Amino acid sequence: MSAFTLLTLKTMSDARGALTVMDGILPFPIVRSFWIYGADGQKRGGHRHHETRQALVALSGTVVVSMDNGEAREEITLSSPGQCLLVEPKDWHEMAFGPGSILLVFASHGYDKDDYIHTPYERL
């Protein structure tokens, strides 16, 4: 069992394509959203937060998210727009981007540089 929450989003598919819905599933109101693209082969993130909660969805390609909450570490692969990874404030997270990946991020708070913690958890 994972220490982190990976949601399966409701998706309807037919001959016309697929439609994925995120309606009332997040445990926080969305205040800010942004997307990361053109980061093929790069790593992004490498921080945690004081307050901000996030939800990550790989709209295209594959994004491997390294998560660490101070007690558990895990790599979670996002490779479908029907998956949504919840990132709590305590979760150190770093994303590795595969070719053509687009990562959509929903956040509970607006950008505030003072909300970022750039020190990872120390392990003995």
UniProtKB/TrEMBL annotation:
Origin: domain of life: Bacteria
Annotated InterPro entries: QdtA_cupin_dom (IPR008894), RmlC-like_jellyroll (IPR014710), RmlC_Cupin_sf (IPR011051)
Protein name listed in UniProt: FdtA/QdtA family cupin domain-containing protein
TM segment ranges: none
Domain Sugar 3,4-ketoisomerase QdtA cupin: 5-119
Gene3D superfamilies noted in UniProt: Jelly Rolls
Organism whose genome encodes this protein: Rhizobium changzhiense
